[in-house]
Design brief:
Oligomer: single chain
CATH architecture of the largest domain: Roll
Structural class: alpha+beta
CATH topology of the largest domain: Pnp Oxidase, Chain A
Number of helices: 5
Bound molecules: flavin mononucleotide
Distance between the termini: 52 Å
Shape: globular
CATH class of the largest domain: Mainly Beta
Strand content: 35-45%
Strand order of the largest sheet: 3-2-6-9-10-5-4
Order of helices and strands: HHEEEEEHEHEEEEEEHE
Largest sheet: 7 strands, antiparallel
Length: about 210
């Protein structure tokens, strides 16, 4: 057998071991769960997107699909799922703020990921451009004007133009495999125990610790 044939054969076998992407949503619950778990292997930061509804009431939801798009012009995006209570309302909002969460804000992330009428109850905030709420204690803020929105399967891709931004030196909250993590140094005890077990001194002192 030619060497290239063998490589092709090995590759086909490897691919057979991979889960196949479900062709019809909800027709194959296991495949869908596997795909979700696989996507969850991509570690992200965590944001809360805030805006005002047409009546001027504050709305906000936890979002990790945030990404930068372009520097010039300054564009960012996030994806809005159609199952969200505020699906229509967010699409109508002309302005929004990406509040990038700090390591100690996992409770806030949980609060804003659950459907509720009073998400902003007890939350400290300031009003930014066009009255859009800025949540206190975040790592960074990006105040945006909506530039465009595009259909994306069961989500809508929302593009924003950054009008104002603010960055602090806080540590980020991370999301990975369905859990929140804190990018922090391990406690000295844990570090010493692991050094002892490994018989070596780790060079990189930054570790992920679960929240
Ligand atoms: C870490 C995390 C990230 C999330 N990212 C998104 C996202 O990018 N887009 C989305 O539509 N929903 C996302 N969600 C789910 C929404 O936060 C949740 O469905 C919503 O806040 C529910 O409230 P609502 O129905 O009142 O809008 C995420 C949830 C969590 C916990």
């Amino acid at each position: 057998m030619e060497q290239t044939d063998q490589i092709e054969k090995d590759r086909d076998q490897d691919l057979t071991a991979l889960g196949s992407v479900p062709s019809a949503p909800s027709s194959d619950v296991d495949s869908m769960r596997n795909l979700r778990n696989t996507l969850g292997q991509f570690a992200t930061g965590v944001t809360i997107v805030t805006a005002l509804d047409p009546a001027g009431d504050m709305i906000g939801m936890t979002v990790n699909s945030f990404s930068s798009v372009s520097l010039d012009p300054p564009l960012v995006l996030w994806n809005l799922g159609e199952t969200n209570y505020g699906y229509d309302v967010y699409q109508q909002a002309d302005y929004f703020c990406i509040n990038i969460l700090a390591a100690d804000q996992s409770e806030l992330a949980r609060k804003f990921s659950q459907a509720s009428d009073d998400k902003f109850n007890t939350v400290k905030l300031k009003l930014g451009n066009n009255g859009v709420p800025l949540l206190e204690g975040c790592l960074a803020y990006l105040e945006c004007t909506k530039e465009a929105q595009y259909p994306g399967g069961d989500h809508v891709i929302i593009i924003g133009r950054v009008e104002r931004f603010l960055s602090t030196n806080r540590q980020p909250l991370l999301f990975y495999t369905g859990q929140f993590f804190d990018l922090a140094k391990k406690s000295e005890t844990t570090e010493k125990k692991e050094q002892h077990a490994a018989g070596a001194t780790p060079k990189n002192k930054l570790w992920l610790t679960r929240d």
